[in-house]
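Re: your question about DUF72 domain-containing protein

S., sorry for the slow reply, the queue was backed up all week. Below is exactly what I fed in.
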Amino acid sequence: MLLYVGTSGWKYDWNPNGLEWYSRESGFNAIELNMSFYSFPQKSAVERWSEESGRLRWSIKVHRSITHLRRLNEKAIPTWEKFVSVFEPLEDKIDFYLFQLPPTFQFNNEAKQRLSRFSSMSHKVAIEPRHESWFNKEVYEFFEEKGIHFVTPDSPIFEGLPPDGVVKINGIVYVRMHGRLTWYNYGYLDEELEEVAEKIIQVAPEKAYIFFNNNHDMLGDGRKLIEIFASKGVKI
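Result:
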C-alpha cells in the first residue's frame, strides 16, 4: 500500500515558513490546496508552488462557483476549464481535483448526469459528499463504473467515519479528517487515529490518501497517524 498523508492547506500557526518548510520539514508527502475553493490563484503562484513542493502529491480543491453556485451543471464547464488551465504548471504532481459538495446536494439521477459529464473531462475527479444519500452501495458502484474517486469524511456528519467505514474505489482510498465532535477545531485521540488506520488497512487499497483539515492539531495528528501506520508496517 502506498501511503500519502498531508493537510488541507499549509498557512497555519504550526508552520513557520510556508510551503517550502512544509515540503522539507513537516514529514508529510501530500498536500491539499484549500484556498482555490475561494479564489483562483495566479499562474505565477502555481509555478512557484511546483518548484517549492518537491515530491509532494497534490489535491486541488475546486472553486465554489463550480460546486456550490452552479452545482456542476453545464454552465460550470467553462469555469472548470479555466480553473484547470491555471494549474498546468502543477499538473504532473496533481492526483485529484477535490469537489466538495454542498450539504444539500443529494445523490439522484440529475447528480449522476452531472458527475458523468465531469468525469468524462478528467480522470482526477474526487467527490466529497456531505449528504447521507451518497453513502451506499449504488453510489460506490456508480463511482467505480465512471472512474470517480470517493472521498470519505471523518466528521461530525457521523461523529467519525460513515457507517460503511472507509470507502475504496478502484483501489484508492481518500479520507478527509475534519474533526469528530466539531468541524475543524478538534484534536484526534490516539485511539481514533488508530481506528482510522485499521479501517484503511482492512480495505487493503493500493493507495491511501489522508488529509487533515482540523486546523491547529493538523501537524501533530498527521505525524501521529504516520507513526501508527509505521507500527503496522506501512510507511510513507
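The chain has a mean pLDDT of 97. The longest helix spans residues 190-203.

Happy to talk it through on Thursday.
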